[in-house]
Amino acid sequence: MTRSLKKGPFINARLIKKITGKKPADAGVIKIWQRASVISPEMVGFTFGVYNGKEHLPVLATEDMVGHNLGEFSPTKKFLRHGGKMQKELEQKKKEAEIAAAQAAKVVVADTTKKK
């Protein structure tokens, strides 16, 4: 749900204070814990270290991100993979295909060196 237009977007005052008077090139990574802060046009070009609950993930603010929250670009959950028997079979076939391709490449290399 969006914030009221009367109130305006939420931007952390400390964050604004950290970026005022600095250039994006020499500011480095600015650490922030406020994931709800909205990216404003003044923040474009800066790199923010957005906390995801475990570590600070670097987020480079671009023009396309203006109006979005910083937390949207720092996922809090790590997707591993879908599980199940079918997924395991697909992964096994993929490994077998990689092994076969590597063996075929070795044979081709060995044949070219013998011909010389």
UniProtKB/TrEMBL annotation:
The reply on keyword Disulfide bond is no
What HAMAP family does UniProt report for this protein, alphabetically? Ribosomal_uS19 (MF_00531)
Please give the function described in this protein's UniProt entry: Protein S19 forms a complex with S13 that binds strongly to the 16S ribosomal RNA.
What are the protein's UniProt keywords? Ribonucleoprotein, Ribosomal protein, RNA-binding, rRNA-binding
Q: What is the lineage of its organism?
A: Bacteria, Candidatus Nomuraibacteriota
Coiled-coil zones: none
Return the NCBIfam families for the record: rpsS_bact (TIGR01050)
GO MF entry, a single one = rRNA binding
What is the name of this protein? Small ribosomal subunit protein uS19
Superkingdom in the source lineage: Bacteria
Q: Which GO terms describe its biological process?
A: ribosomal small subunit assembly; translation
Q: Does the keyword Signal apply?
A: no
Q: Which InterPro entries does this one have?
A: Ribosomal_uS19, Ribosomal_uS19_bac-type, Ribosomal_uS19_SF
Q: Which family does it belong to?
A: Belongs to the universal ribosomal protein uS19 family.
Q: Which GO terms describe its cellular component?
A: cytoplasm; small ribosomal subunit
